[in-house]
Design brief:
The protein is of the alpha+beta class and 400 residues long. The protein is built from 11 helices and 19 strands.
């Protein structure tokens, strides 16, 4: 027996769940499958300890999909992005600049949420949508795409007939592979820690990026934990240094992390587990194939800089849902997929190139490159029209 659905989504991470909800709210029937159900706690095996700052356009998409009310109580607004350039070890501050949200509007830049919790809350919320069926614990197995339909088989033997298949199944995307789409990968020899840290001083809704050799060290505000201030930490290092740090005991790791943070928030203390993962740039060579569209990390993986990764993924979803809702009779047909590719390809490749270059500059300990980094920070911040244009671009909007 074959089950008919408008849309099949492979991947139940944050992007896949948001896509399923957004398509469902637009009136389409959706089946979503993922072999790994969302973890129930931060400590659970496989939980994603990264956090995401949902920038203004992403918040708008979550509102339209009726998802934000369930998330809002867990979100911390980001009012200021503080960028600090340092050199040497122990790091010495050379310059700091604050980029303020009220320079653009009366809204925060974004709202920060832990990824593991977001995925859990989204799955619970979407389970109540009448035209979305979640198959969590079941994976994608095969795809046969025809001109008029796509036939999908899941790992439990379920067979689906869909008008559109959405690959939201990560950097090793099985849907991308089944569709015959290659990808291009760039490695940097870096690895990034993701963890939550308690600290002595309040973060005051300021997200801080500190540049030094090996890459950026980022503190992103989180809700207090039992009355103690807390921030999410993303800490990039060259591979050998990351391995050395990972081998330290808890006190040694926390002491080094505090030193890397310049002690801005007092002593940092890891709370919960920490994860370490490779930093890469990866882009799919195409975003579409017959009856198939790629979004999120199936389409692009970016280094964790400037909250661009998942926010770029949510822009993919917004574009795809807009096209589908604008012409539902031709869902998944070649003209719609061509339009999606035109709308998203240039932006994805531009962001990938800019962040690739920015990461290379940020991680370098070569004095000429560090001098360029310092001069660039001052120029971007201190010239008001450039500052506002860069902030608008970072939000995913054109400067006005």
């Amino acid at each position: 027996m074959i089950e008919d659905t408008d849309i099949f989504v492979s991947g139940g991470g944050i992007a896949g769940l948001v896509a399923a909800a957004a398509f469902g709210q637009a009136g389409f029937s959706v089946v979503l499958a993922d072999p790994a159900p969302p973890p129930e706690t931060m400590e659970a095996e496989g939980s994603d300890l990264r956090s995401t700052a949902y920038l203004q356009p992403s918040r708008d998409l979550m509102d339209a999909a009726a998802l934000w009310p369930a998330l809002e109580a867990h979100a911390t607004p980001l009012e200021v992005l503080r960028v600090i350039d340092t050199t040497g070890w122990p790091p010495v501050e050379r310059a700091r600049r604050d980029f303020r949200a009220d320079d653009l509007s009366d809204r925060p830049f974004g709202w920060n949420l832990p990824n593991w919790l977001t995925r859990k809350v989204l799955a619970e919320t979407i389970a109540d949508l009448p035209n979305v069926r979640l198959c969590l614990g079941t994976g994608f197995r095969t795809l046969l795409a025809r001109e008029s339909e796509a036939l999908v088989t899941l790992t439990d033997g379920t067979r689906l007939r869909a008008r559109l298949v959405v690959g939201a199944d990560g950097r090793t995307s099985p849907v991308r592979e089944a569709a015959g789409i290659a990808s291009t990968r760039t490695g940097y020899g870096q690895r990034a820690f993701a963890l939550a840290a308690l600290h002595e001083h309040p973060h005051e809704n300021i997200s801080t990026e500190i540049y030094n050799r090996g890459g950026a060290f980022t503190l992103v505000p989180m809700p207090d934990v039992d009355g103690t201030p807390c921030s999410a930490v993303v800490w990039m290092n060259d591979g050998p240094e990351a391995a050395r740090l990972d081998a330290l005991d808890a006190d040694g790791f926390d002491a080094h992390m505090t030193e890397r943070s310049l002690g801005l928030l007092g002593r940092l203390t890891t709370t919960g587990p920490r994860r370490l993962w490779p930093v890469i740039t990866q882009t799919a060579d195409r975003l579409t194939a017959r009856r198939t569209a790629l979004i999120a990390e199936a389409a692009h993986v970016l280094p964790p800089i400037g909250a661009q990764g998942l926010n770029t993924s949510l822009q993919d979803i917004a574009a795809l849902v807009r096209l589908a809702a604008g012409d539902p009779a031709h869902l998944g047909e070649a003209p719609m997929l061509d339009a999606y590719s035109r709308q998203r390809s240039a932006d994805i490749h531009l962001r990938a190139k800019v962040i690739d270059l920015f990461n290379r500059v940020c991680k370098s300990d070569a004095p000429p490159v560090q001098a360029l980094r310092l001069a660039g920070l001052k120029a971007v911040h201190d010239i008001a029209p450039i500052r506002r244009a860069v902030m608008q671009a970072g939000l995913g909007r054109q400067a006005t």
